[in-house]
Amino acid sequence: MISQIFILSSKGDNLLYKDFRGEAGSDVQSIFYEKVTALAGDQPPVVMSYKDLHFVHVRHGGSYWVVTTTADASPFTIIDFLNRLAALVKDYCGSLSEKSLQMNFALIYELLDEVVDYGYIQTTSSDVLKNFIQTEAVSSKPFSLFDLSNVGLFGAETQQSKVAPSSAATRPIQSSRDQGGKSEIFVDVIERMSVVIGSNGVLMKADVEGEIKVKCYMPSCSEMRIGLNEEFSIGKSQLRGYGAAVRVDACSFNQAVRLDEFESHRILRLCPSQGEQTVMQYQLSDDLPSAPPFRLYPTIERDSGGRLMMYLKLRCDLPPKSAAINVSATIPVPKGSVSLSQELSHTSSAEMKQQSRAIEWKIPHFSGGTQLSALFTLEVPGLSSASLLEVGPVALSFELPKLTVTGLQIRFLRLSPVQPGPSQRWVRYVTHTDSYTIRI
Question: Which residues contact 104 (CB under 8 A, 6 or more apart)?
Answer without folding.
Answer: 89, 92, 93, 137, 138
